[in-house]
């Protein structure tokens, strides 16, 4: 098969959607090497994250020339003009990796789109109204165009059915995995260097994610306030601040917790695995996510996980994680105290969770994606 991808974020985004794009294309080109992969992008990059992938023999990068190579017009090429490129006619499948598909794909090309989440429809108050309209328009159009929709979790699949009224027969759930950097253990020297660089204590509770209302950092702050001081260890928060940070700062001041809370902003992605690995426990009390990749990152790093009940969290973290009511600070405080005081509890959680996340390995995901593509042709898998 020849498989095409809209690959702008593959080259330009080094978090969230960009990581997903690279994970998919890397996994497929590595573990399904018999197929050819075409990456359509307005511009390229020589970033270390992409170079090993694009240099593979089964990967080809397509970008605009002449008139449409100008930055102001590249968006037009990406959303419309790319479908006129000669290689498009050779494709078996075109896969939109970020909730959209270009206009004008030929009828014979099977169309697949990945939908990550519909949080902007479930919780529109967290978004600008114009953004909600734009995101909604794109995902509705893509789901109408698509022959198959990939949801990254059962939760997202349910939301696609309920909010977009898409027939369940059109949807397949294919999970995503975390970046391979989290599989590598930091050496003792590297760990000491990272602790020194960021001023980290020897033991700490970790929270990773944008500091915004939906991520619900406030319940962790209140849980710290509910713990006896002798039972506390510092909390390290890694994430970009938003206006919600003002409320967090007020809570910290209210409970006199400043000595216990460390905020890290603009942490190098390369440093993040060592920061995870140094944590005693990872707390992710978000109200809602499309999947929750930080949960897998934490488990891969050998850290026990506490997260929220509901949403997709049990799909990502599995049965060995601890699940709390995201509004119940005393419950969170009790679980923190138990895990921090009993190493055997922590060890058992980590061992069982690592077994669970094997389903997110890249070879497994590549095989599942291949099966989705092949299902569109309704032929035995050995024929494609």
TrEMBL record:
One of its GO terms (molecular function) is glycosyltransferase activity. It holds the Pfam family Glyco_transf_4. Coiled coil: none annotated. GO terms for biological process: lipopolysaccharide biosynthetic process. Keywords: Transferase. Residues 23-177 form the Glycosyltransferase subfamily 4-like N-terminal domain. Residues 199-355 form the Glycosyl transferase family domain. This is Glycosyltransferase family 4 protein. It comes from Chryseosolibacter histidini.
């Amino acid at each position: 098969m020849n498989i095409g991808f809209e690959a702008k974020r593959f080259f330009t985004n080094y978090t969230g959607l960009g990581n997903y794009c690279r994970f998919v294309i890397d996994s497929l080109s590595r573990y399904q090497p018999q197929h050819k992969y075409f990456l359509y992008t307005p511009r390229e990059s020589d970033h270390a994250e992409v170079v090993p992938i694009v240099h593979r023999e089964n990967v080809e990068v397509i970008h605009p020339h002449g008139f449409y190579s100008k930055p102001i017009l590249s968006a037009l090429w990406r959303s419309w003009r790319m479908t006129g490129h000669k290689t498009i006619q050779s494709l078996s499948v075109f896969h939109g990796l970020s909730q959209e598909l270009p206009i004008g794909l030929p009828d014979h090309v099977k169309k697949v789109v990945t939908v990550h989440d519909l949080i902007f429809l479930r919780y529109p108050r967290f978004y600008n109204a114009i953004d909600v309209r734009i995101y909604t328009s794109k995902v509705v159009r893509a789901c109408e165009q698509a022959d198959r929709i990939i949801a990254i979790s059962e939760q997202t699949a349910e939301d696609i059915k309920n909010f977009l009224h898409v027939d369940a027969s059109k949807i397949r759930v294919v999970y995503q995995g975390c970046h391979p950097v989290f599989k590598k253990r930091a050496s003792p020297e590297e760990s000491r260097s990272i602790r020194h660089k960021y001023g980290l204590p020897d033991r700490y509770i970790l929270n990773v994610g944008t500091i915004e209302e939906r991520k619900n950092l406030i319940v962790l702050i209140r849980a710290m306030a509910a713990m006896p001081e002798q039972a506390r260890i510092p909390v390290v928060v890694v994430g970009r601040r938003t206006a919600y940070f003002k409320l967090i700062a007020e809570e910290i001041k209210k409970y006199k917790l400043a000595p216990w809370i460390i905020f890290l902003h603009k942490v190098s992605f390369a440093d993040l695995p060592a920061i995870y690995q140094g944590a005693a426990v990872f707390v992710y009390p978000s109200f809602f996510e499309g999947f929750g990749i930080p949960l897998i990152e934490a488990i891969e790093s050998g850290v026990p996980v506490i997260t929220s009940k509901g949403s997709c969290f049990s799909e990502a973290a599995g049965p060995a994680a601890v699940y709390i009511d995201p509004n119940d600070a005393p419950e969170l405080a009790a679980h923190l105290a138990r895990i921090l005081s009993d190493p055997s509890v922590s060890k058992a959680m980590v061992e069982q969770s690592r077994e669970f996340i094997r389903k997110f390995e890249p070879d497994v995901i590549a095989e599942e994606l291949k099966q989705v593509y092949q299902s569109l042709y309704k032929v035995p898998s050995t024929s494609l």
